[in-house]
TrEMBL record:
This is Type 1 fimbriae major subunit. Its main location: other. Residues 1-23 form the signal peptide. It is found in: Fimbrium. Keywords: Fimbrium, Signal. It comes from the Bacteria.
């Protein structure tokens, strides 16, 4: 009899909590996913990691810029091209577009606030050692392509545009174009 009472109690408790175990299905909005890209009729495709990259310039002491034209150490970066077909294009060249500083080959810093560095800009240098203009239409040296993946090395460095460099944030932004022939 005692067993029957315990079994009955267990059955009642199971039925009482069964509603919690079978809660109604709820659907809520989870967010938005953006898919971005391009279909290009070109000799290669730009690797997605090269499209929106950040070059870490690091910290450079103001003492490194004793006079106008002094330069920091160069920082390497690459633009990677995928699926290249030399039957379509044999060479590649790049142009950069950004706000210029005191010369067409000096990229101006983005910030103009009190916390921004002053009298300094950025040079972008191609693989042949030439400072690239940041006018968007002057392309650097051509690089011969190979079939498949191509990694194009570039460098960037700070350059003083005045006799006295003021410390602060030293960030800049440039877009690039790719020319195939």
């Amino acid at each position: 009899m005692k067993l029957l009472k315990v079994s009955g109690l267990a059955a009642v408790l199971t039925l009482a909590f069964a509603g919690y175990a079978n809660a109604a299905t709820v659907t809520v909005s989870g967010g938005t996913v953006h898919f971005v890209g391009q279909i290009v009729a070109a000799g290669c495709s730009v690797d997605s990691e090269s499209m929106n990259q950040t070059v870490e310039m690091g910290q450079v002491r103001t003492a490194a810029f004793a006079a106008k034209g002094d330069k920091s150490d160069a920082k390497d970066f690459n633009i990677t091209l995928n699926n290249c077909d030399v039957a379509i294009a044999k060479n590649v060249a790049f142009s950069f577009l950004g706000q210029t500083s005191t010369a067409t080959d000096i990229l101006a810093l983005s910030g103009t606030t009190d916390g921004s560095a002053k009298n300094v800009g950025i040079n972008i240098i191609d693989q042949s050692g030439v400072n690239l203009k940041v006018d968007g239409s002057t392309f650097g040296a051509k690089t011969a392509l190979v079939n498949g993946r191509n990694i194009i090395p570039l460098t960037a460095r700070y350059i003083s545009t005045g006799d006295t460099v003021q410390a602060g944030q030293a960030n800049a932004v440039a877009t690039f174009n790719v020319q195939y022939d």
